[in-house]
Amino acid sequence: MDHTWIARNAYDAMPPFAVIGGHDSDNDPIYVGRAFHNGDMLPAKVIPNKHQAYVAWGGEEINKHDFEILTGHHYCWIPASGGEVPPHALRVGQTSDGEALFIGRGYFQGSLTPGKVHPSHGCLYLPYGGAEHRLDSYEVLVQPETWVNSSGSNIVPGTILAGHDCDGDAIYVGRAYHEGDLLPAKVIPNKGCAYVPYGGQEHVKYDFELLAGYGYGWVPDSYGNVPPGAVICGRTSDGEPLYIGRGHYNGSFTPGKIHQSHRCLYIPFGGQEVRLDSYEVLVRS
């Protein structure tokens, strides 16, 4: 997944949009980081006021002066336990033998401290007070699919680029309601609006939602099929799920709705709803 990690040392300033992980027992803010130790890439708690980062390893809390800071938007924390992680959990790295490690956090001795979720050990390990401590219940950092209300030409950080119009204008992934359906939309900031396909026509929308986040990609498919991990954008008024696809048409690369029962992708273009049998599908790993 595509997340932004910024290299820092203990005396550097925090980068913009650094992700807060919690607080120390003295209320110093803790940021989400990661660092190498003995061949493992480990989640780290970074405490700027102490000019230190710390990782949990081998029963100890290990100080680190060089590390990376996670930056970005649209993260949240989801409760979990027993080494489990929810969908879209943030994988920070891995052990030297290849096991994935995730970022979790838990309450300990008056602190809210981030650490490593080690699935095969069935727990979260956090660094605190010189030792590595085990917690069976914790929260996991995730970045779910995030839909952000918008209008006109407004674009938020992390918005998903879908393609381009025939005049070269950038098109972003959006969605909007029309006649009881929640439909995928092509959002074109330079034109100050979005467009949805419905009932054979292209409809203009000035209020819509934008999809934001990381870890997305596009996978070829056809005839109403979608691959594993396909992103559900919305539903028809009778409950059929709609997926986000895109296709080439008249010099554009335009997103639209994959309507499985119709066995195609519909895109809004030139005032019409255009049917495409082959397309790419937006997926998330």
Automatic annotation (TrEMBL):
Gene assigned in the entry: Dgri\GH20307
InterPro entries: DM9_repeat
Protein name: GH20307
PANTHER family named among the record's database cross-references: AGAP009604-PA (PTHR31649), IP19903P-RELATED (PTHR31649:SF10)
Organism of origin: Drosophila grimshawi
Top-rank taxon, per record: Eukaryota
GO MF annotations in UniProt: D-mannose binding; rhamnose binding
GO cellular component, one term: cytoplasm
SMART domains according to UniProt: DM9 (SM00696)
